[in-house]
């Protein structure tokens, strides 16, 4: 029999406690959003969808979801259009200050968003773009474009350059080589970058909060206003909106993980 190491026992205990706590919180929020008059018992005696109806009317849920998806899909598409060529250049060419530029790409993701979000918001207000969906999109592009570049970089780098060379030797133009060779090979990376950028944009609270208006706020900002803004809202209605936010985020995350493993997000050293 193999000896059970003490460190292994601690590892599995820590995993169990973590999973138990996370699932317990999620389960409690879901139950509370579906219950009525749940105070002392282990499980609610009355189940209802009343709080979801209340939340939908309070927030004009179709408009809230429209603004959320308009922002996240636009950010994902624009980030791909800008990030793919940048990732290709980083993956295929060696040039001066390449490592410096790669390091600079990390800055918007490492620095707290408020440090550059406040001056960015001030500029968007000055240009009269704030409180609009276009302003929210521009604000979220700042951290998302570098994020997309760093995801696509390893996907493009691991494709052998000989495929492109062979296509060029056979007479294919640069555009045809891209469409017929490079693009199909990087489809998993494109889908992964798009879906993960959607997940990250949905969770982007600070920048969206600074520039969003009543008709351009996303679900995460609406959830914050429910929990902390003036006025009294039923906690069950807040939990109902939290469940909607959780389902949207987890759905996109699971789809993204279907296309690629997280280990592919790290580029290979030379």
TrEMBL record:
Q: Which superkingdom, per the lineage?
A: Bacteria
The record ties this protein, via SUPFAM superfamilies, to: MetI-like
Q: Which CDD domains match?
A: TM_PBP2 (cd06261)
What's a single GO BP term from this record? Answer: transmembrane transport
Q: Which Gene3D superfamilies match?
A: MetI-like
Could you tell me where this protein is found in the cell? Cell membrane
InterPro entries from the UniProt entry: BP-dep_ABC_trans_perm, MetI-like, MetI-like_sf
- Membrane-spanning residues: 9-31, 64-88, 100-125, 137-156, 177-199, 240-260
Tell me the membrane topology, using the record's own terms.
Answer: Multi-pass membrane protein
**What GO CC annotations are associated with the protein?**
plasma membrane
Give the UniProt keywords, A-Z: Cell membrane, Membrane, Transmembrane, Transmembrane helix, Transport
Indicate whether Transmembrane helix appears among the record's keywords: yes
Pfam families membership: BPD_transp_1
The question of whether Transmembrane helix is a record keyword is answered with: yes
ABC transmembrane type-1 domain residues are 65-256
Any coiled-coil ranges, and where? none
Assigned protein family: Belongs to the binding-protein-dependent transport system permease family.
The entry's protein name is ABC transporter permease subunit
Highest classification ranks of the organism = Bacteria, Pseudomonadati, Dictyoglomota, Dictyoglomia, Dictyoglomales
């Amino acid at each position: 029999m193999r000896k059970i190491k003490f460190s292994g026992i601690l590892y599995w205990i820590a995993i169990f406690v973590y999973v138990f706590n996370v699932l317990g919180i999620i389960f409690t929020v879901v139950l509370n959003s579906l219950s009525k008059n749940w105070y002392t018992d282990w499980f609610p005696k009355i189940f209802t969808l009343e709080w979801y109806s209340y939340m939908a009317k309070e927030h004009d849920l179709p408009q809230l979801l429209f603004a959320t998806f308009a922002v996240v899909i636009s950010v994902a598409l624009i980030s791909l259009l800008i990030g793919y060529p940048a990732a290709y250049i980083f993956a295929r060419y060696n040039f001066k200050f390449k490592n410096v530029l790669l390091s600079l790409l990390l800055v918007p993701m490492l620095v707290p968003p408020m440090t550059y979000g406040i001056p960015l918001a001030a500029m968007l207000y000055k240009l009269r773009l704030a409180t609009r969906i276009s302003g929210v999109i521009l604000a979220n592009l700042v951290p998302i474009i570098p994020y997309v570049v760093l995801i696509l970089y390893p996907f493009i780098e691991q494709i052998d350059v000989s495929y492109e060379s062979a296509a060029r030797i056979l007479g294919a133009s640069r555009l045809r080589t891209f469409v017929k060779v490079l693009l199909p090979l990087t489809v998993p990376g494109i889908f992964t970058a798009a879906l993960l950028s959607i997940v990250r944009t949905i969770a982007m609270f600070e920048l969206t909060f600074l520039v969003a208006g009543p008709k351009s706020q996303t679900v995460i900002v609406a959830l914050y206003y429910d929990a902390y803004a003036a006025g009294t809202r039923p906690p069950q209605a807040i939990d109902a909106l939290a469940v909607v936010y959780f389902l949207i985020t987890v759905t996109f995350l699971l789809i993204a993980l279907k296309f690629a493993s997280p280990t592919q997000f790290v580029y290979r050293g030379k």
